[in-house]
Design goal:
It is built from eight helices and 13 strands. It has 341 residues and is α+β, with helices and mostly antiparallel strands. The strands form four sheets. A five-stranded antiparallel sheet has the order 1-2-5-13-8.
Length: 341
């Protein structure tokens, strides 16, 4: 099996796993300002997101979830209780959101122009990465990836990336530094989205599990998640792979799949996205209706959307996950917003 994984890794690096999949690259978003969109100093296309209201969270029954995700153990479904109660949220002010996740090339420009040293390098402990020889069962914590290790950082997650792939192995603190630098550079208020803004934008007016519908199979058209392309690299998880092949065993170039109704790409899959909010397990029970910003206290921050290594259960619009602000992982990236008028 290790020989197969090494062979597949070589095919990925050479592009052989991507070519001939029949997946047409999605059109880049129009950013000429005609519809209020603009392209920033790093080339991010910032799209206008209107004010409005939506139902945040989920209260799906165990029976419904079991039917949709028959391999999911009860404890996994019970752990989704922090998505409840489903509740009305009003986003009272329009804002701009990046059409794509921050790319390797955009993050590289930031680092080179600002002189900022990303946390995985500055603290000397590195990040996480894919290694075909790594055995998770022999690691202290059972992590799916090797690390922390100084070999891994935003520059090297252990697999091939181009400048147009989403940057990963970046911390919440790295995201804050990027937002501060862009804010100073452009005199605009850049930051991470609140958890509510993120879900509102991801849903784009829908109430289904994904912006493409309720059936996990629709993810093959709109998202890079854990499917038949990635399963050979993690045979222990193969049963949980989405049937079908999206053409990418690891990250995909941004904007490769179809966007949601508001023009946002990869809101499901490719890379988890940090949000501005601290995590509160019971926050939904008492959060304000207007523009919630998460609990005032906590030690971990919410990340949303799933990644290229994420099972379809965890790529739903309502799913919540979290990490410490120092976490750098080969699945986690960044998407920024700018507060509008």
């Amino acid at each position: 099996m290790n020989a197969l994984r090494r062979a597949l890794a070589g095919m990925l690096a050479s592009g052989a796993l991507v070519a001939g999949t029949g997946l047409a690259q999605a059109a880049e978003p129009a950013c000429d300002g005609g519809h209020g969109a603009f392209r920033n100093h790093l080339g991010m296309c910032m799209l206008p997101i209107p004010a409005g209201s939506f139902t945040m969270g989920s209260e799906e029954s165990m029976a419904a979830l079991h039917q949709a995700y028959p391999l999911a153990e009860d404890y996994r479904l019970e752990n989704l209780s922090d998505e409840a109660p489903a509740h009305t949220v009003r986003i009272t002010r329009p804002f701009y959101m990046a059409a794509t996740e921050v790319t390797v090339g955009q993050f590289r420009q930031f680092v080179e122009q600002s002189g900022y040293v990303p946390e995985s390098i500055a603290d000397g402990t590195g990040g996480y990465g894919y290694n075909a020889q790594y055995d998770a069962s022999k690691s202290a914590r059972g992590d799916a990836f090797e690390g922390r290790d100084v070999r891994y950082s935003w520059r090297n997650p252990g697999f091939a990336q181009t400048q147009s792939h989403p940057v990963v192995n970046v911390t919440w603190n790295d995201a804050q530094a990027l937002a501060r630098w862009l804010s100073h550079k452009e005199q605009r208020a850049y930051r991470l989205p609140t958890e509510a803004q993120w879900e509102y934008a991801a849903r784009a007016g829908t109430r289904t599990r994904y912006h493409c519908g309720d059936n996990p199979q629709c993810l093959l058209q709109v998202a890079n998640t854990f499917d038949a392309a990635a399963a050979p690299f993690w045979p222990q998880f193969a049963a949980n792979a989405l049937p079908g092949n999206d053409g990418f065993a690891f990250t995909a170039p941004v904007a490769r799949f179809a966007p949601n109704a508001w023009g946002l790409f990869d809101m499901h899959g490719n890379a988890w996205e940090w949000t501005q909010d601290l995590y509160g397990e019971d926050y939904y029970a008492h959060s304000p209706v207007d523009d919630p910003e998460g609990p005032a206290e906590g030690s971990v921050y919410v990340r949303r959307g799933g990644s290229w290594h994420t099972w379809s259960l965890y790529a739903r619009s309502s799913y919540r996950n979290w990490n410490t602000p120092q976490t750098r992982y080969t699945l986690v990236g960044i998407r920024l917003v700018v507060q509008g008028p």
